[in-house]
Write a structure and sequence with these properties.
Layout: H1 2-16, H2 37-52, H3 84-106, H4 135-141, H5 144-156, H6 177-183, H7 200-208, H8 214-223, H9 248-253
């Protein structure tokens, strides 16, 4: 009894279920979930057009655009092919107009692609690169024998300079500012020597301006009695350093 009830229920379910459609070949028969593939394409185009807000024209519809008002300048009946010659001329004219606008904006003439244009000039070589680096170029100018002769000529012009003994320094070279810098330990601005006089600042600025560098001023300062004496007023603060001369670079050079 139970077995017969189960069989009856299964038969009822099989009768109510939807048959699976054949997965036919597109454009030729039935498809999955629809009656015909061509109908499915029409429905899809209609749905896309509706979403975009455009209506799908019916079969055999004729465009209502007047000649010259379309993108290509001509209206065509649905399903017909435009003239290749006229379409090409219209596209070329539109391209020339666009190029003319670009030329006007940039200020540079536009080079139109055309078989009638002259061939571009070919750059024979880079002027910034010597032809000596090109074996073919050198080979066309001179031979190996010519190179050997040129090398011999260059060697004949060589002049060998023999080394000579270093000149001896005389004893009249003046004070050695390096030696003086290494002999001192106090900082710049520390008064070591007394200085007297009036208008010391004005005299200091006037006389220091005569020297090309503080090193030359310090050398002359030492030669004329410094640091104990300052005849030229080059050391008004009495630190022994004339015209803002600084001994620290010399001390640093020797690690002091």
């Amino acid at each position: 009894m139970r077995f017969s009830l189960c069989v009856t229920a299964l038969a009822a379910l099989a009768a109510c279920s939807t048959p699976v459609p054949d997965s036919g070949v597109p454009n030729t028969g039935q498809g999955v979930g629809f009656g015909n593939y061509n109908q499915y394409l029409e429905q899809q185009r209609a749905r896309d057009a509706a979403l975009a807000g455009n209506a799908v024209p019916g079969a055999g519809a004729i465009s209502d655009e007047t000649p010259g008002s379309g993108a290509a300048g001509t209206a065509y009946a649905a399903g017909t092919q435009p003239s290749t010659a006229s379409t090409g001329e219209e596209l070329a004219a539109e391209t020339r107009a666009r190029l003319a606008e670009t030329s006007a904006n940039s200020g540079q003439a536009v080079v139109h692609a055309s078989p009638s244009n002259p061939a571009p000039q070919t750059v024979a070589g880079d002027a910034g690169i010597s032809a000596e680096n090109d074996f073919n170029a050198v080979g066309n100018v001179r031979s190996i024998d010519d190179d050997a002769e040129l090398i011999a000529q260059n060697r004949a012009q060589y002049k060998v300079v023999q080394p000579t003994a270093l000149p001896q320094r005389s004893g009249s070279t003046g004070p050695n500012i390096v030696e003086y810098a290494l002999s001192t330990k106090h900082a710049v601005g520390t008064q070591i020597h007394s200085r007297v006089g009036i208008n010391k600042t004005a005299r200091f600025e006037r006389n220091c301006a005569k020297y090309a560098s503080p090193d030359l001023a310090q050398s002359d300062f030492l030669e004329k009695g410094g640091p104990s004496r300052d005849k030229l007023g080059l050391d008004p603060d009495g630190d022994g350093y004339a015209c803002a001369w600084d001994p620290r670079p010399f001390r640093t050079a020797v690690g002091g």
